[in-house]
Design goal:
The protein has about 180 residues and is an alpha+beta fold. It has one domain. The protein is about 20% helix and about 40% strand. The strands form two sheets. It has a six-stranded mixed sheet. Strands 4-3-7-10 form a four-stranded antiparallel sheet. A hairpin with a 2-residue loop joins strand 1 and strand 2. The radius of gyration is 15 Å and the shape is globular. The protein starts with a helix and ends with a strand.
């Protein structure tokens, strides 16, 4: 695990407002339908690397991936084929650009969690730029193809000074320039 991912894990574990624990397991196997359509991302920016951990309601992400791979249903797991399907979906819906050039995402982890007794699934993804990330553009349309009211919240923390910026992505507000 890279130093930046470890920094992100420590930050998330010690800052309750950033999402509490990082790699909790034990999410329930069932969930009642929910009316809230939101994903939460916590991103660490240090030097030329951006690492982001995004949490989704499990059923919403499974529906999006089923649609992406053109199947009637989809079950999240830690299998390589599932990770590959997510990475393909992510590339079309979440991007980090520097100078108009998209950075390549690299999957560094995934797992089950729970948010207010709702089963969630998280993915940790890393982007590496050719130089220090001072200004970059993020586009996030995750799950917006399924839900008109989908909101994707991403909190960026710049290290080592821990400056923070939070953005809310939704239809009509899919892209923001982030400056540190």
């Amino acid at each position: 695990m890279s130093v930046l991912i470890l920094s992100l894990c420590v930050f998330l574990a010690t800052h309750p407002a950033a999402g509490g624990h990082v790699c909790g397991l034990g999410a329930g196997a069932w969930a009642l339908p929910h009316d809230l359509h939101v994903s939460y991302g916590n991103a660490a920016v240090e030097g030329n690397v951006l690492a982001v951990r995004i949490r989704f309601f499990r059923d919403d992400l499974e529906a999006a991936l089923a649609r992406h791979v053109r199947r009637g249903s989809f079950r999240l797991s830690s299998e390589p084929v599932v990770d590959a399907a997510f990475l393909g979906y992510l590339r079309g819906r979440f991007s980090v650009e520097v100078g108009g050039r998209a950075l390549e995402p690299r999957l560094v982890g995934s797992g089950e969690d729970e948010l207010d007794r709702e089963p969630v699934w998280w993915y940790a993804v890393q982007f590496e730029a050719p130089s220090t990330l001072a200004t970059f553009r993020v586009r996030d349309t995750l799950l917006t193809e399924l839900f008109d009211d989908q909101t994707n919240i991403v909190k960026f923390v710049h290290f080592p000074d821990e400056r923070q910026k939070t953005y809310s992505f939704a239809k009509g507000e899919e892209s923001f320039e982030v400056r540190f």
